[in-house]
Design goal:
Layout lengths: L2 H5 L3 H14 L6 H17 L1 H12 L5 H25 L2 E2 L2 E2 L6 E8 L2 E5 L7 H12 L3 E5 L6 H4 L2 H9 L4 E5 L2 H13 L4 E4 L4 E5 L5 H13 L9 E6 L4 H16 L15 H10 L4 E4 L3 E2 L4 E2 L2 E4 L16 E6 L3 H9 L6 E5 L3 H10 L4 E4 L20 E2 L4 H7 L1 E8 L5 H4 L8 H12 L1 E2 L6 H17 L4 H19 L20 H8 L2 E3 L10 E3 L3 H5 L6 E3 L7 E3 L3 H8 L4 E3 L6 E3 H7 L7 E3 L7 E3 H10 L5 E3 L6 E3 H8 L23 H8 L4 E3 L10 E3 L3 H7 L1 H30 L5 E6 L2 H10 L7 E2 L3 E2 L6 E7 L10 E9 L13 E7 L13 E5 L15 H6 L10 E8 H6 L8 E12 L4
Parallel strand pairs: 4-5, 4-6, 6-7, 8-9, 8-15, 9-14, 13-14, 15-16
Antiparallel strand pairs: 1-3, 2-19, 3-18, 7-17, 10-13, 11-12, 20-21, 22-23, 24-25, 26-27, 28-29, 30-31, 32-40, 33-35, 34-35, 35-36, 36-39, 37-38, 37-40
Helix pairs in contact: 3-5, 4-5, 5-6, 5-15, 6-15, 10-11, 18-19
The protein binds nicotinamide-adenine-dinucleotide and the ligand CC(C)=CCC/C(C)=C/CC/C(C)=C/C=O.
The site of nicotinamide-adenine-dinucleotide has 28 residues, from helix 8 and helix 9.
Main location: cytoplasm
EC number: 1.2.1.3, 1.2.1.94
Membrane topology: Single-pass membrane protein
Length: 927
């Protein structure tokens, strides 16, 4: 590939191209290489255990033990299994031969496919991504991995990137996720005829039979359903049971939910959360139309849905239309196992089927009469953890499988191999024209008779010899033919050498009887033959009867490892195997010198206390693993330590520089005031405000005290200067009173009218009247706001006595006007010269009746003291209550009687309106 072409490729194309290039170098084919890669993967998983668990805690609120228990321990087991058995899995697999192929090599050779694409899902992201990867590596493939974007959005990208990836050519696609995307994957795979494994989901039924221990059954169902908050591909989706059992099933499930997740699962570390709000909403919508028997609590902002059981659910309910994939458990009632089987078979084939029953016959019947990816009786989920079982779906729940050798086989091409010699034409003649009945007879024998090497006994050998003797008689007596037949016979004899099973006497022959012929037997046993392993390179030739003895030493014969490690191999490979590979071999660790079996040694590797290793903190130090722990905690310059002041973690060699700036570092006040607990970050504030030696101003500084002293001396100053402070404060009070008066005046000025008219509303009239009437003495004078006769004119004020005064006291409303000191008095003519009118307004509705206001007008008496120019400051004395004659108003003590006021609407809504008008045109000439 030229460099330019590579650079112009998309990220996805590059990844696939790199993997393919690596695959084509052939290095992934060597078993040693595969084992090293698997061991590296194992080390990675072990080393990153903590981060893996932390990630899932964030995403699914998985408890810390949940991830190792349900994901990574299984992966470790899968890797160990592959490492232990790889040689056997990858070896040629001899298959049964027919008489036609008796002297050929017939076997299956697993071979790598090429580049495998693994697409994972988010619910068990490690199990469903690394699990298939283990199979891919073991089978000698290169692989491109695409984990779910729910977990690693930045690193891997989402749908667009996956689809770009899918455009590339792969040799196998291993997809885990929902069926809708599964179809997209298959469509993309079809373009390149890429074989595809689809690990999908579905609604996995759970039948609880009336004949079973309900307490145990419900405990296992509750575990399998609510684990990972129900987001498990093989979680029981719904329960089928008889109507009479439903209440007990609910009670038992409820009990177990409480035992597992406490009364309040929101606080329980072992209870997870829904992956996101989209799925939260989807699940809440599924509840529609169903009856909640237990749970149902939820909180959208926390993606929380409590363990929930639904009762009497109907087959057409919303919750029964799709895979639930959440903590909702519907119960549907059926009349018994027959109806349950019918119910299951009417629906798509599920990924798992769970049957709880004590009746083995019923279990076997249900298995026989239904179909599902996997089936478990009397438990949930546990088939996933059995590496010898294939894990995968069927029909709508997927295709293909993995785990253990099944993953290896799924990601290998199982190549059929037949290796013949360009010899034995006399035997082969039967298939060449011209065809005859005789030849057909022989063909029938050779083709239809399969040789079961494992169960052939001496009797069979003898019988076959008889047949072959007949062939020899009929066939041309050539040396080649004799040799071929002899060798064919040797195959049987050799096989007998390691046959352990019982002799199978069911030998199919023509109708003729078999008579032992000792002489013929001797002849056959004396035939010269080659070793049955001549093809593989054994040069031995001798009489047939010596074959057994030879095979017991033949370098090419297949033997079982004497250590009983279960591996079978050529005798000549035995020393190498026993020295380097055998799981049960004895060997010594180079570092500690201890003796191990091969299997135990693999586990010992990487943990041997005497092995010399580099410090994991990358400080560069090297030491025996035994002292590594001590070094990491107390010597390593790159170890992490918390700062004793701010508690944040630092590398040991950056801790000191940090402490020179740490905001929580303890400091002393530069004034040496001795205050404890001052830190670098609080020092400035302390010196400015908190320090007892700092100079401060007297708290009465606002009142005018100028005293300044150390903070500690303030108390004494306050005691000594009480008089000074009091007189300063009384000055403040006086100043403020004057200011207040000024302000009030200014407000009145601004709010009063300046056109010679005052319209004054007196509210709460009846209360005010009542109040004065109930008094034994005194009267109540109310004052209007000040107003002006005209712009820059006389400043005036009206007052009213609701209960009258003077001659009107107790019977009348009295009204007066008063001239107040004004701003423009110096410019005006004196005495006050204008005609004044008072009106009490009739508040009747003018649309119904003509208002009859009460009006009185007078011309000011020029001799009246208050009509002379007022003295400045006169107002105060009036309001204060000491009558100053110059401030006496002029008006009507009997303006209107209380009786008269009731006759019309003078009082309305408990208020009266008094109007005063100054007739500036009608000026009274001062004579
Ligand atoms: N059989 C199993 O082993 C197994 C395991 C886990 C989950 N599941 C099933 O998976 C489902 C839940 O997972 P999910 O599908 O929500 O997971 P998901 O959303 O993580 O999708 C799965 C994968 O498909 C990819 N993808 C999504 N849309 C795509 C598109 N349009 N084109 C190409 N790729 C696309 C995603 O990037 C992801 O890697 C359930 O049905 C569950 O039963 C099955
Ligand atoms: C190891 C134990 C006790 C059980 C494993 C069962 C389990 C959690 C299976 C889930 C497997 C899985 C990847 C499901 C996919 O959704």
């Amino acid at each position: 590939m030229n460099d330019f072409l590579f650079r112009s490729m998309s990220r996805e194309q590059k990844a696939v191209e790199r993997a393919r290039k690596a695959f084509l170098t052939g290095r992934s084919q060597s078993l040693e290489y595969r084992i090293t890669q698997l061991k590296n993967l194992l080390r990675f998983i072990r080393e990153r255990q903590k981060e893996i668990a932390e990630g899932l805690k964030k995403d699914l609120r998985r408890s810390e033990c949940g991830t190792p228990l349900y994901e990574t321990l299984g992966l470790e087991n899968e890797i160990n299994l592959a490492v232990r058995n790889l040689k056997e899995w990858a070896a040629p697999r001899p298959v049964s031969k027919s008489m036609m192929t008796i002297s050929d090599q017939v076997y299956i050779q697993p071979e790598p496919l090429g580049v495998v694409l693994v697409i994972g899902a988010w619910n068990y992201p490690w199990a469903v991504t690394i699990g298939p990867l283990i199979g891919a590596i073991a089978a000698g493939n290169a692989a491109v991995i695409k984990p779910s974007e729910e977990l690693y959005p930045v690193v891997t990208g989402g749908v667009t990137e996956t689809q770009e990836l899918l455009k590339q050519r792969f040799d196998h696609i291993f997809y885990t996720g929902n069926g809708t995307v599964g179809k997209i994957i298959m469509e993309a795979a079809a373009k390149h005829l890429t074989p595809t494994t689809l690990e999908l989901g579905g609604k996995s039924p759970c039948y609880i039979d009336s004949n079973c221990d309900l307490a145990i059954a419900c405990r296992r169902v509750a575990w399998g359903k609510f684990l990972n908050c129900g987001q498990t591909c093989i979680a029981p989706d719904y329960i089928l049971c008889e109507p009479s059992m439903q209440d007990r099933v609910i009670e038992e499930l409820k009990k177990n939910i409480k035992d597992f997740y406490t009364e309040d699962p929101t606080k329980c570390l072992d209870y997870g959360r829904i992956i996101n709000q989209r799925h939260f909403k989807r699940l809440m919508a599924l509840l529609e139309g169903s009856t909640i028997a237990v749970g149902g609590e939820n909180n959208e902002s926390d993606c929380y849905i409590g363990p929930t059981i639904l009762r009497d659910v109907k087959p057409d309910a919303k919750v029964m239309q799709e895979e639930i994939f959440g903590p909702l458990l519907p119960i549907l009632t059926v009349s018994g196992a027959d109806e349950a089987i019918k119910f299951i078979n009417q629906r798509e084939k599920p990924l798992a089927l769970y049957i709880f029953s004590s009746d083995d016959k019923l279990i076997k019947r249900m298995i026989a009469e239904t179909s599902s990816g996997g089936v478990v009786a009397n438990d949930c989920l546990m088939h996933f953890s059995v590496s010898s079982l294939p894990f995968g779906g069927v029909g709508n729940s997927g295709m293909g499988c993995y785990h253990g050798k099944h993953g290896f086989d799924n990601l290998s091409h199982l190549r059929g191999c037949l290796i013949k010699k360009l010899k034995m034409e006399n035997v082969n003649k039967m298939r060449y024209p011209p065809h005859t009945v005789d030849k057909l007879g022989w063909a029938r024998f050779f083709i239809l008779k399969h040789v079961d090497f494992g169960s052939l006994g001496r009797m069979m050998l003898l019988a076959l010899m008889v047949i072959f003797a007949a062939v020899i008689v009929q066939a041309p007596n050539s040396m080649e033919f004799n040799m071929a037949l002899s060798n064919a016979l040797c195959a049987f004899t050799a096989d007998m050498a390691y046959t352990e099973s019982k002799v199978n006497l069911n030998i199919p022959l023509w109708n003729e009887e078999i008579f032992p012929d000792m002489e013929l037997e001797q002849q056959i046993l004396s035939l010269p033959i080659r070793c049955i392993h001549s093809e593989e390179g054994c040069r031995w030739t001798a009489q047939n009867k010596l074959l057994q003895a030879h095979l017991s030493v033949c370098e090419f014969n297949v033997v079982s490892c004497p250590n009983r490690c279960s591996v079978k191999l050529l005798r000549r490979e035995l020393p190498e195997h026993m020295q380097h590979d055998c799981a049960k071999r004895k060997l010594h660790c180079d570092h500690c010198g201890d003796e191990f079996t091969g299997e135990a040694y693999e586990n010992h590797q990487g943990v041997c206390p005497e092995e010399s290793v580099y410090c994991e903190n990358k400080c560069g130090a090297r030491m025996v693993r035994r002292v590594l722990g001590q070094h990491s905690v107390s010597e390593c310059p790159k170890r992490k330590l918390p700062c004793r002041y701010c508690k944040k973690e630092f590398l040991y060699d950056t801790l000191q520089p940090h402490q020179q700036q740490c905001p929580r570092f303890p400091m002393q006040c530069p004034n040496r005031c001795g205050t404890p607990g001052i830190t670098r970050e609080t020092l400035m504030a302390h010196v400015k405000e908190g320090c007892s030696t700092a100079m401060v101003l007297c708290p009465f500084r606002e009142a005018g005290c100028k005293h300044k002293c150390p903070k500690t001396a303030v108390g004494r100053h306050l005691e000594e200067a009480t008089h000074t402070h009091l007189s300063l404060l009384s000055g403040v009070v006086n100043r403020q009173r004057l200011e207040l008066r000024e302000l009030r005046r200014a407000v009145e000025e601004l709010s009063g009218s300046r056109d010679g008219t005052l319209l004054w509303k007196l509210t709460d009239f009846s209360q005010r009247l009542q109040e004065v009437k109930s008094r034994t003495s005194g009267s109540l004078e109310l004052f209007s706001p000040a107003f002006y006769s005209h712009n820059y004119g006389y400043r005036l004020q009206v007052s009213a006595f609701p209960n009258g005064n003077g001659s009107g006291e107790g019977s009348h409303l009295s009204v007066y006007i008063r001239v107040l000191p004004g701003e423009y008095d110096g410019l005006l003519e004196w005495p006050f010269p204008y005609r004044v009118s008072f009106s009490l307004l009739d508040q009747s509705d003018p649309a119904l009746t003509k208002p009859q206001h009460i009006t009185e007008t007078f011309i000011p008496d020029p001799t009246w003291k208050n009509f002379q120019r007022p003295r400045p400051g006169a107002l105060g004395s009036v309001r204060g209550g000491c009558l100053d004659e110059s401030m006496l108003g002029f008006g009507y003590p009997k303006f209107i009687s209380h009786e008269e006021m009731k006759k019309r609407n003078y009082i309305r809504d408990n208020a009266i309106f008094i109007k005063a008008t100054i007739d500036v045109v009608q000026k009274i000439l001062n004579s």
